Amino acid sequence: MIKITKKLALSAALSLGMMAAPAMADTVKIGFTGPLSGGAAVYGQNALYGMRMAADEINAAGGFTVDGKKHTFEIVSLDDKYAPSQAAVNAKRMVQRDKVKVVFTPHSGGVNALKGFNEKSDFILMAYTSVPNIESGNDLTFRIPPNFEDYIAPYTAFTLQEHGKKIAIVSGTHDYARMWVRSFVPAWEAAGGEIVANNPMDYNKSADFYTGVSRALAKEPDALLIGGPSEPSGLVAQQARQLGFTGGFVFMEQAKIDEMEQVVGSLELLEGSVGNTPLSALSNPGAIRFIEKYKTDKKDDKALPAAEIGYHYMTIHLLAKAMQEAGTVADTKRIAETLDAAAQQLDDKYNTYDVHGVDEEGGFVLAQNVAVVRDGRIVHYTGKDNNEE
């Protein structure tokens, strides 16, 4: 009888404890496939770091509420070594194994591979690539950074005025770089410029670019067009200087000037360059707060976050807002339909790049930022009559 009473008392206590305990938050898994090894590993790891920064911040605050229930994020990642075919395998694996409803990938080859089946497999594709119209024709694909074609006119105007008409192309061999070159060449020639060499190199398999750069420099260019992630792009520029090149650099916006400064050791080696404005040089409230948060996370007052970290951090917060607005974490169509409204309502403190909408095709609406290196400083370039600020 005593044993029965004790059992009943214990059962009642456990029941009361269970009733008193707070409800557990449901976990929403978000997928990432990108280069986590090889020459572009830093680039891929940066993108993943930004996603995890935001997820950790959201989870530490208790998660986000959707339809009256708390949810937290878990980031699931797989290495695709910058290979589109592996990106497709990774995405299918995460959809089947982890039941993800959103997959991020930071390269155009991966985006094109995943676009072939993401609607059928019912997952939103977050494309971190500036390739024009890559989001078009697919209701579940969204382009995060600005369209790269918007950079070509100001890059061209600055370089022609500052350096001259002859340019040699020493960009990467990946899909993004090839598409950039196809858009750049006719625009450069239409503006009166001349392509004196086109010598693409595989940025993912080597850190020694001397042979390819030497071949391009033999044509005596006034400037070099360099395109790929920051680390190999910085090495290409550095090796060009070591070979005696004194002209300008045009950097496809995948490479970031402040990151390349860390690779080459000094902005002096990048003097006369044009590229997109680094996150560290932006002045909007979200960027300023994010930079301080990044330094705190890294325990380093001199640490500067890469652009892909800031973009991916912002987009995870945007996703949480979109799911709240949609009232679902699983209905991809409803989430996709609310992204524009969510972007317009995103709290400034999470809005690192001042996104203020999503257009009809699925591209994030953002301000264009172009910068040049002048007298050892990164200076904002307006593109209007070659003015700098």
How would you characterize this protein structure?
The protein is built from 13 helices and 13 strands. With 389 residues, the chain is of the alpha/beta class. It has two domains: 189 residues, Response regulator (Rossmann fold); 142 residues, Rossmann fold (3-Layer(aba) Sandwich). The N and C termini lie far apart (86 Å).
Percent of residues in helical segments?
A: 40-55%
Into how many domains do the coordinates divide? 2
Distance between the termini: 86 Å
Q: What is the C-alpha radius of gyration, as a whole number of Å?
A: 24 Å
Q: What's the helix-strand series?
A: HEHEEHEHHEEHEHEHEHEHEHHHEE
Structure summary, number of beta strands: 13
Main sheet overview = 6 strands, mixed
For the residues shown, what is the average pLDDT?
A: 91
Spell out the blueprint of helices and strands.
Layout: H1 2-20, E1 26-34, H2 41-60, E2 64-66, E3 69-79, H3 84-98, E4 102-105, H4 108-115, H5 118-121, E5 124-127, E6 141-143, H6 149-162, E7 166-169, H7 175-190, E8 194-198, H8 210-217, E9 223-226, H9 230-242, E10 248-251, H10 257-264, E11 274-276, H11 285-298, H12 307-326, H13 332-345, E12 370-374, E13 377-380
Parallel strand pairs: 1-3, 1-4, 4-5, 5-6, 7-8, 7-9, 9-10
Antiparallel strand pairs: 2-3, 11-12, 12-13
